[in-house]
Amino acid sequence: MAAVSSRAPVSSRAPVLTPQAEDFPRWYQDVIAKAELADNGPVRGTMVIRPYGYALWERMQAEVDARIKAAGAQNAYFPLFIPESYLRREAEHVEGFSPELAVVTHAGGKQLEEPVVVRPTSETIINSFFAKWVQSYRDLPLLINQWANVVRWELRPRIFLRTTEFLWQEGHTAHASQADARDYARRILHEVYADFMVNVLAIPVLVGRKTARERFAGATNTLTCEGMMGDGKALQMGTSHELGQNFAKAFGIEFTSDSGLREHAWQTSWGVSTRMVGGLIMAHGDDNGLRVPPRLAPVQAVVLAVKDEAVEPARNLATALREAGVRVEADLRTDTPFGRRAVDAELKGIPVRVEVGPRDLAQGNVTLVRRVDGTKAPVPVGGVVAATLAALDADQAALLESARERRDARIAEVSSIADAIEATGSGWARIAWSALGEEGEDKLAAQAVSVRCLVRPDGSVPDSEDEPDLLAYVARAY
Amino acid sequence: MAAVSSRAPVSSRAPVLTPQAEDFPRWYQDVIAKAELADNGPVRGTMVIRPYGYALWERMQAEVDARIKAAGAQNAYFPLFIPESYLRREAEHVEGFSPELAVVTHAGGKQLEEPVVVRPTSETIINSFFAKWVQSYRDLPLLINQWANVVRWELRPRIFLRTTEFLWQEGHTAHASQADARDYARRILHEVYADFMVNVLAIPVLVGRKTARERFAGATNTLTCEGMMGDGKALQMGTSHELGQNFAKAFGIEFTSDSGLREHAWQTSWGVSTRMVGGLIMAHGDDNGLRVPPRLAPVQAVVLAVKDEAVEPARNLATALREAGVRVEADLRTDTPFGRRAVDAELKGIPVRVEVGPRDLAQGNVTLVRRVDGTKAPVPVGGVVAATLAALDADQAALLESARERRDARIAEVSSIADAIEATGSGWARIAWSALGEEGEDKLAAQAVSVRCLVRPDGSVPDSEDEPDLLAYVARAY
């Protein structure tokens, strides 16, 4: 806990955050400031990710990266700077991204002959290399991922959710057939993104298909994971796109098939970003701060020495927990008031707090505090490891379960556009896609409501928006 | 080995690289192309790091990151874009970096009111936040690191060694006293950088102090790790700077000391970059390609099935090696000629090659080929794990030893400037700093020779360039 600042004096248990019910957006900003997650940067819309916020992101990276590698993709790195002309090669893509571009016109003390854009996403530059690397069907599938920063000039920036610069991974693949590309886009959606979000972030995302209106610029199909936040709004947490042959034709990615014909490759791209940190805050946070799911938590347990006499036992307990595989920190700063340190651990959402005080110790006990439900219980010193492991397991499940209950309780079944708009005041609406259509989508948009995704009646992901009986999930979104 | 391209036909064992002795720079470019490490990007001086090159970088990151965290620093992330005015606040710093800046003048379809620079390094923006975060001596030391891309417009780019955009880590710290800052800059130099370079990269770097001429723009002292490459030139592999109070004064980083006085913080910054990949290639590579030290290698052993009958035994051996903790890949692509696959593993410098062929198998053997010394030996199937582990250990030591022998053999003891320049035709020269001085340094510079570092007679790092009896290492450098 070396980086925990102890400047702002916290008077015992007085609320340090605006309550969610009073002003959710302000609560969100308060959590980010008080849990020391991030700051605004000096250039409008940029952010500084502070050590605790970055530790959350590093854990997300590690979990997502392992799943991407298990899906067969390899990491690489492509340049930040893209010649402006590259962007123009795919018509819809340039139209979608032009208003958001940052452009370097001067470098090395001179005006550049051709301006370069700072990547808003890397389809154009990566596919220009795929065109060199792909010659034969033997070179396919080509499965590449990169972890990088990207820049999109935002008119209404919001920290973590919509920032001018953000960190993400972007996967780019080329396949010999449409079916293979389609399968891979779905594999990433389910095995990488939804698996991570449900089982690690404990956010029960809905997976579905975007409507044409909401599709990525240049894609033939966008698949999405949508999470419900604490205020009932939706957050797009990750997307996986089928690009068809759009970029392959724009960049000349051709291969000789096994029957000797020259064909254009079929492609996908997919990404998740630091926006997920915003989703984590808003999906699980409460009036006392963050609640971090144990499997994600960079610090799963903190052992606090209440007074000097407890320093040695606290240190020993931290060692025992570490040896049991728990990501643990010992907070031995007895020169800082105990209440302030406890509030700080609570703000940061550390799942288990082991409070080691002389009075409890005299009876052979410590106090185990669980962040998810706020329960406090005495635990014998010898039982701390087992109790902590049990709490971490139970609270991972409890967070997912309570997020699922909230989501299900806040989805209204409706049959008219007016009712759908009404329902999005406090949650999501589910409506037959046939009762909505693109015209209905326009009416929703006029009220700042959007179709988050289309799903089949059994909850699976449709192959087309023209399938019969599709359901649309409709919401206000971040 | 999924990403290994099999396009370029390699005719048995004909050399695929320009021999080092014929043209070292061309050999370097050949290795980068044939081992599929990197490509040039479309914007001059940028590079694409291909999967195998990136895997080397990921291993470097993991090893360096663990050492940085052990030294107490925490990762964070600061914006890519810095207001131009920030750069101007530290006079030497702006003078050093101005000629290399890339400037964004337009964004979101409009001209910006104040141009922003793409970070060439982050002292200015990070220290503007340190000024907010540091108030009391209790907030110190503040130890921050970031992994990021930076941009410096290069006139003579060279892939990995000097690129317009490169990847690095940059550490930035603030301390309550000059002594504490000085100690930390040295701790990073020795415990993070030199330890990693010697014990993982197997490059016996010299550590020393830069002369005033070679100092980082804005620093009061620059410490460096210098490696000798295969052609006898020097490569600056990493630097650690004491910044004194220069940035603290420019950005107002003040704290209340334990005696209640307001004081400016003392600072350090330090970094290593993708340039180390270039150092790895040039320090250990030979006419057959890369030689990757086992501790670094993303793939420590590859098990090659020579023919179809060997696929199953090869797969089993790979599993046994993986279970023994070896980073191993099975190459079961029996539809690709075996010779081509063996050459490819050699080009990529994979330390151990286990060749599994039907003839050897009939006798209960496989062939174990060691990349470092090129030896081939039959090994009983049941002894492969032990033989591989032994080879990995021995070859890590052998690479370091041979690099140390080359370095020591190529350092000439000289006493005149003319002899020093002469010696740098094939290696380094060591000369008394008193025989050189700043005037001598100017004469060397006129011949494109530089002082790489100053050390004490016992090899330790001096606290000042005015200490008596200092020795200067002099070389041509990348």
Task: List its traits.
homodimer; 478 residues; alpha+beta; 7-stranded mixed beta sheet; 5-stranded mixed beta sheet; disordered N terminus
Task: Give an overview in words.
2 copies of one chain form a homodimer. In chain A, the strands form 6 sheets. A 7-stranded mixed sheet of chain A has the order 3-7-8-14-11-10-9, sandwiched between helices. Chain A has a 5-stranded mixed sheet with strand order 16-15-17-18-19, with helices on both faces. With 478 residues, chain A is α+β, with helices and mostly antiparallel strands. The relative contact order of chain A is 0.12. Chain A contains 14 helices and 23 strands. Helices cover 34% and strands 27% of the residues of chain A. The radius of gyration of chain A is 25 Å and the shape is globular. Chains A and B meet through strand 2, helix 2, strand 3, strand 4 and strand 5 of A and strand 2, helix 2, strand 3, strand 4 and strand 5 of B. Strand 5 of chain A pairs antiparallel with strand 5 (102-107) of chain B, so a sheet runs across the interface.
Structural class of chain A comes to: alpha+beta
Query: Which geometry of chain A do the CA atoms define?
Result: globular
Radius of gyration of chain A: 25 Å
Count of strand segments of chain A: 23
> Which residue ranges of chain A are poorly predicted, with pLDDT under 50 across at least 5 consecutive positions?
1-12
- Percent of residues in helices of chain A comes to 25-40%
What is the oligomeric state here? homodimer
Task: Report the span from N to C terminus of chain A.
Answer: 32 Å
Question: Whole-number average pLDDT of chain A?
Answer: 95
Which two chains touch over the largest interface?
Answer: A-B, 66 and 66 residues
Largest beta-sheet details of chain A:
7 strands, mixed
> Could you tell me the strand content of chain A as a percent range?
25-35%
